[in-house]
Amino acid sequence: MKKSLITLFMVLFVFTGFTVLSAEDGNMKTNDGILKLVSNDGKFSYQLDARLYLDAAIYNEDENVLDMHSGSEIRRMRFALKTTLWTNFIAEIDFDFAGNEVDIKDAYMGYKKNNFIFKVGNFRSPFSLEEVTSSRYVSFIERALPNAFPPGRRIGVALYKWGKNWQVAGGIFGQEPGDTAEDALDDEEELEKSDEGYSLVGRATFAPLYKDNKIFHLGVAYAYQTTNAFTEKLRFRGYDESKITKIRFLSTGKVKDVDHSGMVGFESALQLGSLHLQGEYMKVNVVRLSDSGKPNYGLSGGYIFASYFLTGDSMPYYADQGEFGRVIPKKKSGAIELLARYSWLDLNDLENGIEGGEGKNFTLGLSYYLNPNYKIMFNWTNVDHDTYADADGDFSLWSVDGMDVPNSGFDYSVFAVRLLVTF
């Protein structure tokens, strides 16, 4: 807690001090509620990016089997500083202080010119439309079930190139900051693999229809990943689109003797004015070590959702990033959005001995955008599990009297609320 507060005050002090000292040499501007300092010659700019998410959830479950623990939390408390230096050089630092801990998010430097960017540091791997979209702009409180698959943020280098209605991105990445070899030593008996794990990730998108708020988006991504240093294990697991409870029912556990995984993702979106349709499908093939004698296995997941703005608003689309952005309400009274989503995640490959569980979620949502900075979100989700969704065998740790997973799987529903502010 003490370390978190010190870091937080340092970030605020640096930015406040820079603002005061530099105000005479530049212009303080706001872009739809986002503060930005730009030098008079346009060669330098600094932008504060802060966000706060307050979440609460009420679970409707069979408490005679398992208590999901309804409650509230600070889901995110982020502070970031983005900068342009000497016209073409860019950098960003981004920290999350939720949970009284400091978590490094984006920390990179790069070069940008015309329609080309080079990045080096820690940032999101280019995989999945929903994954690369900022949490500020995703349509539901939490990303869909298959978000268990994308590589996420890693230390690496990447290139980005785009045109009028397309973009391509690719890079090579290592492991997460702080994900050191020591983290793997506790449960490892034989430490044969000492090199840092790496991944090759690429994504390409194309919008054949991109005119007058009519958008048709298509995308494909691929990721090749090895296991982390000092381990030949791989685990996929995910939350049920709610993180107030910390139980992750869907988990493969740490599968041994893995050489690498290959992951492919397909994405599409259609927007016609206030109507937005979006979906993704992901497939993972895991290759075991050739001398292990163990079979390879496959996992999959996907989602589809629809949203409609009752107030005539819509999501802006950025072809250079292949993603949708922040909603700017047309009216002072704000914007109202209705949503529905179906998602699924299958971490079972029973023929090859993988019993991670299967989940199917159906969500209804209502979002009210008070202005470009404030949003209130309401989600109701029905969660359907199979009998293998046992949190990697740990279901009994949370269940009443150590009860096993019911034969039909443990199902429940959750009503969640988020109050979000970005500035």
What does this structure look like?
The protein has three helices and 22 strands. The strands form three sheets. The protein has a 16-stranded antiparallel β-barrel. Strand 14 and strand 15 form a beta hairpin. With 423 residues, it is mainly β. It has one domain: Porin (Beta Barrel), CATH 2.40.160.10. The mean pLDDT is 91. The longest helix has 21 residues.
Task: Summarize it.
This protein is mostly beta strands and 423 residues long.
Total of DSSP H or I helical runs spanning 4+ residues: 3
Quantity of strands, as a count = 22
Q: CATH H level: which superfamily?
A: Porin
Q: Beta-sheet strand percentage?
A: over 45%
Helix percent band: under 10%
Radius of gyration, CA atoms, in whole angstroms: 22 Å
Record the SSE blueprint.
Blueprint: H1 2-22, E1 26-31, E2 34-39, E3 45-60, E4 71-85, E5 89-96, E6 103-113, E7 116-124, H2 129-132, E8 153-162, E9 166-173, E10 199-211, E11 214-226, E12 237-238, E13 250-251, E14 258-272, E15 275-288, E16 297-309, E17 317-318, E18 323-324, E19 335-349, E20 354-369, E21 374-385, H3 395-398, E22 412-422
Antiparallel strand pairs: 1-2, 2-3, 3-4, 3-22, 4-5, 5-6, 6-7, 7-8, 8-9, 9-10, 10-11, 11-14, 12-13, 14-15, 15-16, 16-19, 17-18, 19-20, 20-21, 21-22
Please give a handful of descriptors for the protein shown.
single chain, about 425 residues, mainly beta, Porin, 16-stranded antiparallel barrel, two-stranded antiparallel sheet, 3 helices, about 50% strand, globular
